[in-house]
């Protein structure tokens, strides 16, 4: 059974595993399965890894479909990399996410858990994103059916999403359910105009073509920002296209464009220019207003962003006297959100531009008790820094998927704040970090929040309280 190229037949899928994989057990082995299968399916699996206790593979055939499956609502399901869990009812997605959190904290973290509150589901399970980035490509992903049609090659230009694992192929999107209108209208109008006027879609292999990306932000305030990314300046063509967009689609409040002559798609080292409107949008969380420019980071699901921050603020349990450290603070949104209940907020973030935004956001919201520092948290959080800014009453930490650096965890153990609120987008690394912190801290509360319906991504908030030392008891 340790040979390669093994195909296991008619295996019942029993559970979900991390990263959207499903799980089966056979002959005492755990098998991780890719390929869009769900618990309750019976499938054939071609193994790609085959170890003593576990194996990994891809489902090649589904014999029996789980009775719990539902019909996906999107025409692009199956090829598109977004919304991959549409075949599960939302209530079941939430159950699996909750289970993932428990599994990670118990199996990786070996933590004793308090009674857990049920995951907070998203009020909107579609049209919940405030930002999407579409890619122009002259290499559309074609389905077998499209290629087979009378041997005629259909339209090769596409405006949509990269197809997972195929770096040069883009899936042409007709309707995306991740954002509210007018976003589909904006994308389809730009594409139709570009096709009609023979504007060159980007060729990622040859590094040629004019149109590269279309980024759309839509806020709960109703503001809509379009950022058109082009390979080089062509003023008459750019103006004609953007004027056509403005004249055709109502509701766009600002348009910027960015010239990207580089090989990579990132716009962070480029300067977007304003074509129409104020060049940014404003988003509201409770009564806090955040200015979001083309390069700013912001929680992509605003509705659940508020919920996540409310949980965080609630867990912090501030009384007005505490110094709060907001580690990995991005544009300062958590710190600003809790600032009225804190004596002082100290925010730390790697990206300098995000810190500039954080300071601006604090000023715009009349927050005078927050200071923000740009740099690596590991470097900034030294003894001198804590001595200068004060002993934290609460540390809020919201690291990226990789979790916290071990040195930072050690520092937190040494600083020994009474409370730590750990916001995580990856329960596996969170569990690892919590295990290290459990030397000194007890897990008091756990609250998963679903930020990304129809995907396997999980957000989880944990409250840690410092254990009483024998002398303190
Ligand atoms: N708390 C913020 C952002 C969280 S995303 C919010 O709710 O909006 C995680 C952030 O950590 C990102 O902004 C990323 O730039 C930052 N980051 C990643 N590694 C870092 C490091 N070593 N030091 C400081 N910040 C870091």
From TrEMBL:
EC number(s) from the headed UniProt entry: 2.1.1.190
Top-level taxonomic group: Bacteria
Record-listed S-adenosyl-L-methionine binding positions: 299, 328, 349, 398
Residues the record marks as active site: 425
PROSITE patterns linked to this entry: SAM_MT_RNA_M5U (PS51687), TRAM (PS50926), TRMA_1 (PS01230), TRMA_2 (PS01231)
SUPFAM superfamilies: Nucleic acid-binding proteins, S-adenosyl-L-methionine-dependent methyltransferases
Keywords associated with the record: Methyltransferase, S-adenosyl-L-methionine, Transferase
Regions annotated as coiled coil: none
Domain (TRAM) ranges: 1-61
GO terms of biological process kind: rRNA base methylation
Transmembrane segments: none
Pfam families: tRNA_U5-meth_tr (PF05958)
GO molecular function: rRNA (uridine-C5-)-methyltransferase activity
Protein family according to the UniProt entry: Belongs to the class I-like SAM-binding methyltransferase superfamily. RNA M5U methyltransferase family.
Name of this protein: 23S rRNA (Uracil(1939)-C(5))-methyltransferase RlmD
Organism name: Chitinophaga agrisoli
């Amino acid at each position: 059974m340790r040979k390669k190229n093994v195909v296991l037949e008619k295996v019942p899928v029993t559970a979900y595993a991390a990263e959207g994989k499903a799980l089966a057990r056979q002959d005492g082995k755990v098998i991780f399965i890719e390929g869009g299968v769900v618990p309750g399916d019976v499938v054939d699996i071609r193994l790609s890894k085959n170890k003593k206790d576990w194996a990994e593979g891809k489902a090649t055939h589904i014999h029996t479909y789980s009775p719990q499956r539902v019909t996906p609502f999107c025409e692009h399901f199956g090829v598109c990399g977004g919304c991959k869990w549409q075949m599960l009812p939302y209530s079941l997605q939430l159950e699996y996410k909750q289970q993932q959190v428990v599994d990670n904290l118990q199996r990786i973290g070996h933590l004793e858990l308090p009674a857990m509150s049920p995951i907070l589901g998203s009020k909107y399970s579609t049209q919940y994103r405030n930002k999407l980035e579409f890619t122009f490509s002259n290499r559309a992903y074609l389905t077998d059916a499209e290629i087979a049609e009378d041997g005629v090659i259909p339209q090769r230009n596409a405006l949509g999403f990269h197809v997972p694992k195929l770096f040069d192929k883009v899936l042409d999107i007709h309707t995306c359910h991740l954002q509210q209108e007018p976003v589909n209208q904006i994308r389809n109008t730009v594409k139709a105009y570009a096709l009609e006027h023979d504007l060159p879609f980007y060729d990622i292999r040859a590094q040629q073509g004019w149109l590269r990306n279309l980024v759309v932000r839509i806020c709960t305030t109703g503001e809509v920002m379009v950022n058109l990314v082009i390979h080089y300046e062509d003023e008459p063509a750019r103006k004609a296209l953007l004027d056509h967009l403005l004249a055709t689609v109502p509701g766009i409040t600002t348009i910027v464009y960015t010239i990207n002559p580089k090989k990579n798609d990132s716009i962070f080292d480029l300067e977007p220019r304003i074509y129409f409107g104020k060049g940014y949008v404003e988003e509201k969380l409770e009564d806090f207003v955040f200015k979001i420019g083309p390069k700013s980071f912001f929680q992509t699901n605003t509705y659940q962003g508020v919920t996540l921050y409310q949980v965080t603020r609630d867990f912090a349990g501030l009384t007005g006297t505490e110094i709060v450290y907001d580690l990995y603070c991005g544009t300062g949104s958590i710190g600003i959100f809790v600032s009225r209940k804190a004596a002082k907020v100290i925010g730390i973030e790697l990206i300098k531009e995000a810190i500039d935004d954080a300071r601006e956001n604090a000023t715009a919201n009349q927050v005078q008790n927050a200071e923000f520092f740009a740099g690596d948290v590991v470097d900034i959080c030294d003894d001198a820094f804590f001595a200068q800014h004060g002993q934290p009453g609460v540390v809020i930490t919201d690291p990226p998927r990789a979790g916290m650096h071990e040195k930072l965890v050690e520092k937190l153990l040494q600083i020994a704040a009474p409370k730590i609120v750990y916001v995580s987008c990856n329960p596996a690394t969170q569990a690892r970090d919590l295990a290290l912190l459990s030397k000194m801290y007890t897990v008091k509360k756990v609250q998963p929040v679903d930020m990304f319906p129809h995907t396997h991504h999980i957000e989880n908030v944990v409250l840690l309280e410092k254990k009483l030392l024998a002398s303190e008891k």
